[in-house]
Amino acid sequence: MQYQFQNWYHFTWLSGSDPVQNLVHQIDNASWVLGDAAPAAAWGFGGRQVCTDPNQYGDELDHHAIVYEYADGKRLFAHGRHIPGCYNQAAVIAQGTKGRALMPARPYIEGENPWRFEASETATSMMDNEHKALFDAVRSGTPINNGQAMCHSSMLSILGEMVCCTGQQMTWEQVMNSELSFALPRYGWDVEPPIKPGADGHYPAILPGITKLG
Questions:
Q1: Is the pTM above the cut of 0.85?
Q2: FRET label pair with 153: which of 36, 77, 186, 199, CA 20 to 30 Å apart?
Q3: Are 52 and 84 in contact (CB under 8 A)?
Q4: pLDDT-derived band at 15, boundaries 50, 70, 90
Q5: Could you tell me the domains of the chain?
């Protein structure tokens, strides 16, 4: 248990894997573009291409690709990897009939109505702004409750992780009604973790098409 807590980043039951701990930010942004609507279903794939040492990397996959399908025909494609030495980009691209919006750190729009974000000389960072909003809310007694949106984005990410691990398509209703839980009956260094090394001393890898979740 102590080893897994020290290496929590690479155990799905502790970190949620890459869709839940990293890709969730882009999924959250893209979901906002789509009006935070629930998808009808999702499917995807993932694997371990480079981070294959089970003693160092636990049971996590090192790359994921997820397709969220919406009832009105829209699609959300989410891709992520945590493989050393590779090209990295954290961005959302919304493709429409009249152009596309690119949302990295400095967003811009290409197409019929082009636009580019231009920060003023007095602009402050989004981190400063969100803390100011928090402190102002506390001081004024007017709480900011983004719980619904945060839970929705978290569930989208959990759905993405589940379909990548199992290799199966899942509906929104299935994941919302899933009884999957990594919660332990109690917590302590003497508690048995939900994943343990196999007879060979190695942690078993997740195998899409074989692994069952939810």
A1: yes
A2: 186
A3: no
A4: very high
A5: 2-87+125-176 (3.30.360.10)
